[in-house]
Amino acid sequence: MIFEILTIFPDLLNSPLNEGILRKARLAGKIDIRITDIRDFTEDRHNTTDDRPFGGGEGMVMKPEPLARAIEHARAASQDESKVVLLTPQGRRYNQSIARELAQQLRIILVCGRYEGVDERFRAAYCDDEISIGDFILTGGELAAMIIVDSVTRLLPGVLGCTDSADKDTFSRNLLKHPQYTRPRNFQGMEVPEVLLEGNHGEIRSYRFIEAVRRTIERRPELLRQETFSPAEIKLLKKNDLYTVVQQIQDNHNA
Ligand SMILES: C[S@@+](CC[C@H](N)C(=O)[O-])C[C@H]1O[C@@H](n2cnc3c(N)ncnc32)[C@H](O)[C@@H]1O
Description:
binds S-adenosylmethionine, two-stranded antiparallel sheet, alpha/beta, 9 helices, about 35% helix, elongated, Trp Operon Repressor, Chain A, Alpha/beta knot
């Protein structure tokens, strides 16, 4: 998969792309990340990428022509269909299901805004999708682009060492992940739950499922509204007195 990132601050992206799983995925050829400096597509001697807003008002707006040239250059460099994603607080709110959707693409061009954002005509003419990473304002789209690259990359086949670990993450279902423990068995007087030490894998699966549901009820009950459970899971929920709580959450939503 190819990620092409358009930015006026290319150096900002170096470190996150050169550590950990992203680095390994790049070296293994699972992803290719190309960083394009929008300034390379300016035509004046000051490499101007922004200008004052028509109609007045605060801040500067990113000019459409350098952005358009950068996209056209990126498109010309490859035959593959590419999806252009504008990072903007006004876009659809990013989540794991959008990450899964993007992981199906061969090539994504991520456009990082700065200042007051991009000229509306560039947005209308060139952007296929607009994504916000949350209801807050960043100084630029670069960190948002990194969040997308990181979360999409770990979904690509063969990227994570343990093949099924992405399937069991929080949000792979509408459930938060169960709590995790490692050595030592006793930390500051707190013991690891006995069931995890006994080696009964069926019991461990049931325990983890129940803890995942418990945690979701406590922290993110709204997620459960869209979750469905197998007959075996319903039996477990009933045995642990959680079925009525889950049903109440789901009924309140449907009422
Ligand atoms: C200071 S922001 C511009 C905000 C704009 N004036 C507004 O109110 O919608 C500059 C750039 O940061 C990026 N950005 C800021 N917050 C973001 C968010 N929550 N999600 C994605 N990108 C964001 C966008 O690329 C945006 O063009």
